[in-house]
Write a structure and sequence with these properties.
By secondary structure, the chain is α/β, with parallel strands linked by helices. It is built from 8 helices and 8 strands; from the N terminus they run βαβαβαβαβαβαβαβα. The strands form 2 sheets. The chain has a 4-stranded parallel beta sheet with strand order 2-1-3-4, with helices on both faces. The protein has a 4-stranded parallel beta sheet with strand order 6-5-7-8, with helices on both faces.
């Protein structure tokens, strides 16, 4: 019998409407024995678009982990997998990033895949992650439709057309066998796009929910030897003092 599970999904930005989209998608794919708690930091950027935003959302992300210590697993709902390594260092519970989840799912159902994200400034960070995860060779392209993250909340016909054209282009020019949508704000578009284009269209929220459920069912925890060892007890000064690691 499946275990009762509580999964905490953290949208690292502070935009409530995006958290609601993420929550709706997650609950659609979660199992009957899974409780989904979707949350966001009280402080930080309203959207995450590049390295600078990433840096300033991590403190709020860590606080949300500490505020939800009773969860059985965590999902970081930013496609850049913002703060993923930091969070894995403070818990032994499974922690999955939606970018990481989407890449692995795509690799299981296709010989190659393309990633379509929001802005071009995200292309190199996503390529860096693909190399880190050992999946760069399976990715035939990472492109951007040049639409800001928050413009996806109520996506216009023009922006949806940009997305459709991006998919058509990579299928034609790159021989893509699957498409990955590179933003949590696109999670509600995947199935319609899959029907329109006739190939797997994968988004990270649902992928992460299924993978996190699986790790919890397998009772596999995050290793505390080496890379994700708990932080050493030390002083943090100034306004970061509340994040001081303590054993």
């Amino acid at each position: 019998m499946s275990l009762k599970k509580k999964i905490c999904i953290i949208n690292p930005n502070t935009t409530t409407s995006m958290t609601e989209v993420i929550d709706t998608t997650a609950k659609k794919y979660a199992g009957l024995n899974t409780e989904i708690i979707s949350t966001q930091p009280e402080t930080g950027p309203e959207s995450i678009e590049g390295y600078y935003d990433e840096a300033f959302c991590i403190p709020g992300l860590v606080e949300e982990i500490k505020n939800n210590i009773d969860a059985d697993g965590y999902i970081i709902a930013c496609f850049d997998d913002t703060g993923l390594d930091a969070v894995r260092s403070i818990t032994n519970k499974p922690v999955i990033g939606i970018g990481e989840a989407a890449y692995h799912v795509a690799s299981l159902v296709s010989g190659n895949f393309s990633v379509i994200t929001t802005l071009s400034r995200s292309i190199n960070p996503l390529k860096h992650n693909l190399k880190k995860y050992g999946l760069f060779e399976k990715c035939v392209s990472v492109t951007a439709i040049e639409v800001p993250v928050l413009d996806l909340e109520e996506i216009s016909d023009d922006n949806l057309e940009k997305l459709n054209k991006g998919i058509e282009k990579t299928i034609l020019e790159d021989n893509s066998e699957a498409i990955i949508l590179g933003c949590a704000g696109m999670s509600n578009l995947a199935k319609d796009l899959e029907l329109s284009h006739g190939l797997p269209v994968i988004e990270g929220v649902s992928s992460a929910v299924v993978l996190t459920e699986g790790l919890i069912n397998l009772q596999i925890k995050t290793s505390k030897i080496g890379s994700y060892a708990l932080p050493r007890d030390k002083n943090y000064t100034g306004y970061l003092s509340k994040f001081r690691p303590q054993r």
